[in-house]
Structure formats: structure tokens, C-alpha cells
Amino acid sequence: MSKKEYILKILDALMGYWPLARGLKILVNGNALDDKTIDSLVDIFAKTINEIQNSETKQKLQKSKEVLEQLKKIEREQHIRDQKSLDDLDAMIKDI
């Protein structure tokens, strides 16, 4: 499942609890938000989760937020590995 799909699931869970959920879902679903903006939604979700009174919903959203944070971490690590590989390739080309 992609980061976008997880965010859409979280926004579905927030429907009825958070007025912005519907509008954000439309934007995310329509690819109107870039990756940086989507990443910043994790922080917004964290604040929203703290405001929700229903403990069952709060637990589900907390787990979803943790999944998104893990996805962000994996993406950062992959980016670092990719950059190192590119640097290695550049060095090999210079040797030619």
C-alpha cells in the first residue's frame, strides 16, 4: 500500500471528526498535493489525533500515523542509498 493510500485511509477515518478531512481527501485523491505537502500531513494528523475524544478512533489513527512515519523513514533511507549509488557511479565515470 502506498503512502497516498494510507493517507486516504486516515482521512476516511477522520470524516465526521475533522472538518478538513473531506477537502484534503479530494486533493490527495486528485493528485493535487506534492510529496512534501503530503509528508507534512503526518504532523497535522498528530495534532488532530490528540484532539479526538473517541478512544477507539484515536487508537486507529495513531496506528495509521505510525505507519506513515515509518514510510517516511523508509523513503529517506532509500533516498540516501540512491544518492550514494549515484555518487559511486559518478566516481566510476570519472575513472574512465
Describe the model.
The structure is a single chain. The protein has 96 residues and is mostly helical. It has one domain. It contains four helices and no strands. It has helices spanning 3-14, 20-29, 35-51, 55-95. α1 packs antiparallel against α2, α1 (3-14) runs antiparallel to α4 (55-95) and α3 runs antiparallel to α4. It is elongated, with a radius of gyration of 18 Å. The mean pLDDT is 79.
Q: State the shape.
A: elongated
Number of helices, counting only DSSP H or I runs of 4 residues or more: 4
Q: Give the overall pLDDT as a whole number.
A: 79
Quaternary structure: single chain
Summarize the structure.
With 96 residues, this protein is mostly helical. The protein has one domain. It is 83% helix and 0% strand.
